[in-house]
Every structure is written in C-alpha cells, then in structure tokens.
User: Fold this.
Amino acid sequence: FAKEYLYNAVFSAAKINSYPEDAYAVMEAEMRKQADDVMSSYREYLEERLGDVSEEYVFDYMQKEIFGEETYDDIEDLIRGVVTGQMDYIIINNVLADELGVEYSYDEYAKDVQALVSSSADYEITVEEFESGMLGGKHYYYAYFLYDKIVEALADKVM
Assistant:
C-alpha cells in the first residue's frame, strides 16, 4: 500500500511541459473515432427504446454510462481529457523509469503482454487485438507494465 501511495504521490505531482504533437494528434484522432463509434452504438440503442433522440441526449447518456459523470461541456473536452490522461500516464511512467534507472526492454514487454493475453481463458485474442483495445495501444501497455517496476524502484530509493 505504501509503495503504491508513493507512486501516486510522485505521479500526481509530475508535470508535463509539452506533448509530442504528432503522437498527441494520432491519439486524438483515435479517440475521436472511438467516441464516434460509441456514440453511434448508444444512439442506435436509445432510438430503439425512445425513438428519435438528440445528439446532446446521446452524449449525456454515454457520459453517465461510461464515466459515471452527469455531463461534460462537450465532446471536444472529453476527447482532450481522455487523451491528456493517457498521454500523461505514458509519458510520466517512461520518464520515471528513466529517472530511476528502471530497465525494461521491448523484448520483455512482448513476453509479458503475450503471457497476459494467453492467460485470458474467456476467448482467444491476438496481442495486436488486445493492444488496439486501449487508447495508446502498445505504448499504454508498455507504461502499464513499467508501473510495478517503478513502484519497486521508488520504494528502494526511499529505503
């Protein structure tokens, strides 16, 4: 618990001065497509039950169902917020790993993600399909696997 608290404290205090604009634009386009797909599916669902519904109603319903929020200002704020959150996670974890001297190769990542995907007994999925399910794909999951190594390195640094 203390180790995770330490990570959360360091992570939340970290500030990113600038984003790699190309990566940001790619993730924003990916998020926009995901949001459009989800909105279409919710629209279809709601129109089957309620008839014709406004875009705003569909968006508000989607926000409540997915994020537990009552409303967001608009879809652009949602997209920017989600993309920023994902980019923060990816960038900060990679910077923390570098600062702490954490060693984690993409070969190790490939083995870890394959083991995770293989352990899912519910259905068969490829690594590529698995990675495409999260905004940021491989970069997000690489940062995800770095998390435990960062937590341990932070704890070692404090002790």
